[in-house]
């Protein structure tokens, strides 16, 4: 599906919506979503895997099957849910985050609100709704609907608790050839905007676990994760979803700016500070 507006502008304006307008999503918009998730090309991640996203329409949080889908009262008036389905391994989870984030940016372009949910929903209720194959699970969902003009008290409180308006500075997440040597905006060249889209991207509890090390010749952008200790409490590594979101943001911005590159698995074997929390994920090669 062709995006019609600036993806960079959509990424800038996207925010988490937890309270939705009671009006239904139009048939035209539902058709666009269904067309998108039925196209295998849209669901293929940088690692060559085809991911699964299911759409479930709801009325008062009850699906067409008559099942009550649980979000613990955090979400109000959703008109549907998009459900990510994958296997519980590193690159499958990264790929699922990548695939769903690209769709979320399309929804932002359409004026449809979303909210990443990796822990605050009842997996058992969604697993009853969706037919899972052996080895599959649901790492994340997003409710969808048109945002209510005025944010609710719940929205404002959760946004405050998550520190959603606070983002790490450049010198904390982007580095020049090695960790500990910050990359300045002036030295980032044409990739400043894609890097900024990574910086402002959503992440669980706004931890922003991504770290990017740029090679000296500016041809390789190595994506690492800085794991938050003791954060993996859901039976899977939720922060791998954050890495998928980061690479989706980066790629979409590069594509819009016609900055050609490819994702490669070429760990640079850099001399990193000894840390059990830093792990290589993928590199963007120009």
Strand content: 15-25%
Sheet with the most strands? Answer: 5 strands, antiparallel
- Counted by DSSP, the helix tally is 8
Distance between the termini: 25 Å
The secondary-structure element order is HHEEEHEHEHHEHEEHEE
The CATH C-level name of the largest domain is Alpha Beta
Explain how this protein is built:
- Helix 7 (192-199) links the parallel strand 6 (174-176) and strand 7.
- The protein starts with 6 loop residues before the first helix and ends with a strand.
- Strands 2-1-3-5-4 form a 5-stranded antiparallel β-sheet.
- It has 8 helices and 10 strands.
- The mean pLDDT is 91.
- It is globular.
- It is 29% helix and 20% strand.
- With 286 residues, the chain is α+β, with helices and mostly antiparallel strands.
- The chain has helices spanning 7-13, 27-37, 90-109, 123-129, 153-161, 170-173, 192-199, 239-256, and strands at 52-59, 62-63, 80-87, 113-114, 136-145, 174-176, 210-214, 220-226, 262-264, 278-285.
- The chain has 2 domains: 7-157, 3-Layer(aba) Sandwich (NADH Oxidase), CATH 3.40.109; 166-285, 3-Layer(aba) Sandwich (NADH Oxidase), CATH 3.40.109.30.
Q: What key attributes describe this structure?
A:
286 residues, alpha+beta, NADH Oxidase, 2 domains, five-stranded mixed sheet, 8 helices, 10 strands
């Amino acid at each position: 599906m062709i995006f019609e507006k600036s993806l960079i502008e959509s990424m800038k304006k996207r925010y988490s919506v937890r309270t939705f307008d009671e009006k239904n999503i139009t048939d035209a918009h539902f058709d666009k979503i269904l067309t998108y998730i039925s196209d295998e090309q849209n669901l293929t991640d940088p690692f060559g895997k085809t991911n699964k996203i299911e759409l479930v329409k709801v009325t008062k949080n009850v699906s067409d099957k008559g099942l009550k889908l649980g979000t613990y009262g955090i979400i109000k008036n959703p008109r549907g849910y998009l459900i990510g389905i994958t296997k519980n391994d590193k690159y499958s989870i990264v790929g699922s985050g990548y695939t769903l984030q690209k769709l979320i940016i399309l929804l932002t372009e359409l004026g449809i609100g979303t909210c990443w949910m990796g822990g605050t929903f009842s997996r058992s209720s969604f697993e009853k709704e969706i037919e899972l194959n052996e080895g599959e699970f649901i790492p994340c969902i997003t409710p969808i609907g048109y945002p209510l003009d005025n944010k609710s008290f719940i929205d404002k409180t959760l946004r405050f608790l998550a520190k959603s308006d606070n983002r790490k500075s450049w010198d904390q997440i982007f580095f020049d050839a090695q960790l500990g040597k910050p990359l300045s905006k002036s030295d980032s060249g044409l990739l400043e905007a894609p890097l900024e889209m990574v910086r402002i991207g959503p992440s669980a509890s706004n931890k922003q676990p991504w770290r990017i090390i740029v090679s000296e010749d500016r041809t390789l952008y190595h994506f690492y994760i800085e794991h938050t200790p003791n954060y993996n409490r859901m039976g899977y590594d939720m922060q791998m979803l954050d890495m998928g979101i980061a690479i989706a943001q980066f790629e979409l911005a590069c594509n819009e700016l016609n900055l050609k590159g490819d994702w490669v698995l070429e760990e640079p074997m850099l001399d990193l500070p000894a840390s059990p929390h830093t792990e290589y994920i993928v590199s963007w090669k120009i």
